[in-house]
User: What shape does this take?
Amino acid sequence: MNYRDNLKRLTFFAIFTIFSTVFCYSQVVKQSAPYENKLLNGLKLFVWTDPTAEKVSVKLRIHSGAAFDPKDKMGVMALLGEILFPSEQSRDFFTEDLEGNLDITTTYDYIQITATGKSSEILSIIETISKAVVTPQVTAENFKLVQTARIKKVQEMEKNPNYLADRAVAKRLLGEFPYGRTAEGTTESLSKIDRADILFAKERFLSSDNASITFVGNVKPDFVYRATRQLFGNWTKSDKKIPATFTMPNEPDLTPQKIDFTPAEANLSSAFEIRFATRGFARNDKDYWAIRFLADVLQNRFRSQFDTRLNDSVSVVHERNLLPSLLNFKISVRMADIVDPSKGGKIDLTANPTETLRVPISTAEFEQTRAKILGEIDQKPMADKTLDVITYKLGTVKDEIQRLNSVTQADLQRVADKLAKQTFVSVTVAPASNKQ
Assistant: This one.
């Protein structure tokens, strides 16, 4: 490539970078002025008015999640989230009467209720959610209902080698640290939980000053505020905040771990799951965006080490959590893809992820991943960005976007150099019949 071609390429990247930064920042400024208020009980409220929206979206987030599950009773916080709307009938109201939907998500760091419906039914949505969280029906009948449903769900998950591999590598790397345990619970741990555990978790975490609520749609902020104040006003505050502080895990066992499993379904009879993982960064770490960029670069590099037909089966994921979690190199492959000569012959699955960290980050790699991440963040709803800022203690959305835009190629290289010196654990999950 001659000097003129190099100059053209650098000029293009410079223009593209400036455009991406200005576009992303302008989008944030355009969307970042919600109506904001706080009730006397500490519940934080945000409203974005969109006169063109036919539906309204309401998100209520409890800023504590499965990281607080007792060690031997994983799944308590997931059950707490589900018991707020314990039956199908309680959820069908949103689809049948409000022409929307209801979803409850529990992660390590939060429980979130997401409800949508007709804008004209905003009062019914607020009232229904308030009843669920202010006066939750943690009855013996409801507890048994959600416990049985979750055990059944987890039993199905535990038959999947992809799930088994993810859980095994997290356990291997992080041990009894909260992110080394499963947020979903296990069949065994869920069976140990009783109704008193849910009541205890409710008293500790389901409180007004540990929650935020957002509204997006064709709604009037003053009406939403008055309705929320009226219907959530008697939601009690917590006696004390429970900080997310846990003892960091010991150094992991670096011996490669092999797990045999007996597939319950024919289409899983030849599935292999391979994981390589090392410790990552907390969501509020100053280098979070650098490792987020780097994970995308590493994914492209890691895929290039394999036959192109495995591109969709190879990924690199940096877990987003309040406390340091893990960077996970994942391979999902079928036996036929490994040995079938008609598909290109045998595939070598012994690639070492640390090799991808030792290659210097190129300008092309940096600009490509930067454009991708900026696009993804630009598409993320402002309500989610705002809730994340509170959950992960990030300051403001504007500050976070500025941190995102300030990431440099040198930052990625510095983080890559650091990760290359860390230890990796490896786990392979394979059908027992294919043990080698």
About this structure: The chain has two domains: 35-232, 257-434. The first helix runs from residue 3 to 31. Confidence is low (pLDDT under 50) at residues 1-30, 340-347. The first strand starts at residue 35 and ends at 38.
